[in-house]
Amino acid sequence: MSSEDRFRRVYAGNFQALLAYASRRVEQPDDAADVVAETFLVAWRRSADLPCDDEIRLWLYGVARRVLANHHRSGTRRERLGERLRQRLTAVSTPDPGSEVPQRLAVQAALRRLNDTDREMLLLTVWEGLQPREAAAVVGVSPTAARTRLSRARARLRELIGDDPDAPGHVLDVLAVPVPKEGR
Predict the structure, then answer these.
(1) Which of 5, 11, 145, 172 could serve as 141's disulfide partner, Cβ 3.0–4.6 Å?
(2) Crossing angle of helices 3-23/56-92, nearest 10°?
């Protein structure tokens, strides 16, 4: 019997038992499937070292046990990393420009009504703080085209929101930020 045929037989004979084993030891079914897949990957890579048929299931359980241990350690590391990241983000926390706008829902509605190109140019230059030439590099156009698009996007947004500073959604301080001059 070839090593591939033997592996297929080992897989077919042990898959369900290993899946049940892993399922009882993890929270998510997807994680159990990953543990079983990793276990059989190890078995495939070490097919020349597989024990005799009487001992193969126990060997696979041992491999699955180590895979589970790695899985749990990885989860713990991810949780610690996530906690550190949350702490850093809380300490650094960059304010959302939209939260400074009293009528941000009106602005968001107006932004949704803009076409994708106009919205992207406004968001890149105003919310992300990019210069028009930098936004041009992001969207893949020339700096001149970016400045033109930005000017048109601002005009379209003004049409949607209006020029009256007392009207709901007027955002002179956020969306009409003067863009610093850049070299042409």
Answers:
(1) 145
(2) 50
pLDDT at 94: 66
The pTM score is 0.46
Q: Are 157 and 126 in contact (CB under 8 A)?
A: no
SS3 call for 72? helix
| Nearest residue to 174 via CA among 149, 161, 28, 13 | 161
Q: Provide the b/e sequence for 141-167 (b: ≥16 CB within 10 Å).
A: bebeebbebbeebbebbeeebeeeeee
Quote the distance between the C-alpha of residue 54 and its chain's center: 45
Say what the pLDDT of residue 12 is: 93
Angle at 69 between CA 63 and CA 74, to 5 degrees: 125
In which residue ranges of the chain is pLDDT below 50? 169-174, 176-177
Rounded to an integer, what distance in angstroms lies between the CA atom of residue 170 and that of residue 140?
30
Q: How far apart are CA 157 and CA 113, in angstroms?
A: 9
